[in-house]
Design goal:
With 146 residues, the protein is an alpha+beta fold. The protein is 19% helix and 27% strand. It has 4 helices and 7 strands. The chain has a 7-stranded mixed beta sheet with strand order 2-1-7-6-3-4-5. A hairpin with a 6-residue loop joins strand 1 and strand 2. The radius of gyration is 17 Å and the shape is globular.
Length: 146
Amino acid sequence: MAAKIIKFPVDPRIKAQGTPRAAEKSIPLDLAIELIDTKPALLRNARVYSDDSLADLHQVIAGLFGWDGSHNYFFSHGSSRYEDPELFRINDSTAARCRKIYRACDVPVGNVLIDRDAPLFYIYNLGNCWELRISLCNEASLKQFG
């Protein structure tokens, strides 16, 4: 008797924690991006999609603030860190997994920004250390009301 193999559709993208990503359609995310420690506060808004990578978000942020995007960067959320692929290449990949360090180009924004109360932090230009707080906008979408 031959075994019957049933193939399930697989999405090759991986969640930051290493579990398979659920098949879902991309949804728009409205973000509030604030440059920390500036007087007056410097705030920008952006719309990205849940399956855009954090590296894609880096390019959006660089454009919003008029940066050329050529400096190293990293994102942090809780105890996890999502690095510029150039920075990640320098690290030992085994040690990086132990320290919860991931490549920003492999992690979708929707896997990290899922809670309005838990912002994502972004550091750009490690020499000057520009720090930004990224959070989901608190405005309710009118689509939910019909």
